[in-house]
Task: structure prediction
Amino acid sequence: MEGIIVNFRQGKQTQTNNQMVVKVESVKNKEEAKSLINKKVTWKTSSGKDLVGKITNIHGNSGALRVHFEKGLPGQSVGTKVIIE
Result:
């Protein structure tokens, strides 16, 4: 299953670089998104490295997911695809 990184998780004056908001096209609501919690997410860099994260919670009412990575992702990752396993 594939998803798209929408944005960093952020507040009014803060940004958390190791937490991303991911949207999956096939997921339309909260109930469908809850079934994906604790799954692994992989983002491939342009040099071929794999950065692995974990879905920790849902984000909002439209089925977006909150993904926690061990290290922060670069800004170039916003708008790119991730693989959900």
In short: The chain has one domain: 2-84. The domain at 2-84 is CATH 2.40.10.190 (Thrombin, subunit H). The CA atoms of residues 18 and 73 lie 6 Å apart. Residues 30-34 form the longest helix (5 residues).
